[in-house]
From TrEMBL:
This is Uncharacterized protein.
Length: 93
């Protein structure tokens, strides 16, 4: 198998499972330490599809937007958290 073949299989596994240990990847795909490091660089740094957890686990993040966009989207609009009596007072003043 080529590097691209293994990369595709690892990504499919990671997307399906959500989390996978580096030890499991080494065993499942018969990888040596250098090959595993190359996969980690490609998945974590180049493609930004996963994050490293404690140097032991690869955690899928997929094609999600950045945290800043997520947190901005979750900020409630003023009318959704302003009590109705205050909202009415603000709108009529």
């Amino acid at each position: 198998m080529t590097f691209d073949d293994i990369l595709a299989r690892v990504l499919a596994l990671l997307e399906r499972e959500g989390r996978v240990s580096y030890r499991a990847l080494k065993r499942r795909f018969d990888l040596d330490e250098d090959y595993l490091e190359d996969l980690k660089v490609e998945i974590i740094q180049a493609k930004k599809l996963a994050v490293d957890e404690d140097g032991a686990v690869l955690v899928w993040r997929g094609n999600t937007p950045s945290v800043a966009v997520d947190s901005a989207a979750s900020v409630p609009l003023p009318l959704t958290y302003t009590p109705p009596h205050l909202a009415e007072k603000i709108l009529t003043s």
